[in-house]
Amino acid sequence: MAGYAAPPGQPAPESDHEKIASRALILLREGRYNDAIACYDELLRRFPSYVDGWYNKGIALGEHLQDYEQAIYCYDRGLQLNPMDIDMWHNKGKALYCLGRNEEAIQCFDRVLSLNAHYRISLEGKAAALNNMGKFREAEAVAEHILEMYPPRNIKTWKALSVLAMSLNNQGQYKKAIEAANKAIALNPNDDGIWETKGAALASLGKYREALNCLEEALKLNPHNRTAEATRDKVAEILNEFWSGQKK
Predict the structure, then answer these.
(1) Residue 234 in contact with residue 246, Cβ under 8 Å?
(2) d(CA 167, CA 160)
(3) Is the pLDDT score of 89 beyond 80?
(4) What does the alpha-carbon distance between residue 202 and residue 116 come to, in Å, rounded to a whole number?
(5) What is the DSSP-derived secondary structure letter of residue 61?
């Protein structure tokens, strides 16, 4: 039987999978993530080869509900259907990174970079994962590569500068770390990680008051930053001991 043909000048009717996908996307944008996932479950039960359904379900699970294992499952299903999907590989890498599976995350980021060597966010992810693995010089090199891709003070470089500051701080290059952190803060003052790194570098140089101010700023932006909190408490203790000694 011949398929339905829309009259001239009229749009073709929306297919079943498009209707379900549209409804799921609306739920996702409204922040109704569990409802969106239920909708994607219906979609993928009926249309298991719908790649965007696996991708968007992975987004709902990983980005919004922090269910990284299930997100990875969705991305793997999508990649079975389209192994050249850069965004799918990148998001799988992010989910692995969030689980602390840094080597596997780097493998995903490298897969992206084999398809697009200048894919900035995967370069950033790779640099961050290298830092987590203690490979600070390699992380520094990747961050520097990102910075070479853009003119100075380009807004897109703030995360690379943040990763660079962290890798330099971990190598004991505190002044250079502070310089990189200041550049990152000038571009994006709302990232608690940059303030934390700057505070730690200042503390290592014995500049405790300045360090305390930076760490307080990090905690103002993110009260759940436990590393910044621990460093802040140590710095505050050092300052208290100093002032107690001055009064004797």
Answers:
(1) no
(2) 10
(3) yes
(4) 37
(5) I
How far is the C-alpha of 56 from the C-alpha of 107, rounded, in Å?
22
What domains sit in the chain, N to C, each tagged with a CATH number? Answer: 17-117 (1.25.40.10)
pLDDT band for 20, please (50, 70, 90 cuts): confident
Q: Residue 28: what pLDDT?
A: 86
Question: What amino acid occupies position 3?
Answer: G
> Cα(first)–Cα(last) distance of the chain, in Å?
97
Residue 150 DSSP label: S
**How far apart are the C-alpha atoms of 166 and 197, rounded to whole Å?**
6
Identity of residue 198:
K
Give the separation between CA 198 and CA 6, rounded to whole angstroms: 62
User: Nearest CA to 54 among 46, 64, 44?
Assistant: 44
Q: What is the pTM of this model?
A: 0.85
How remote is the C-alpha of 161 from its chain's centroid? 14
pLDDT at 13: 38
Residue 1 pLDDT: 29
Q: What is the DSSP secondary-structure string of 178-217?
A: HHHHHHHHHH-TT-HHHHHHHHHHHHHTT-HHHHHHHHHH
Distance, in Å, from the CA atom of 52 to the CA atom of 115, rounded to the nearest integer, reads: 20
Q: Give the pLDDT score at 245.
A: 60
The 3-state DSSP class for residue 35 equals helix
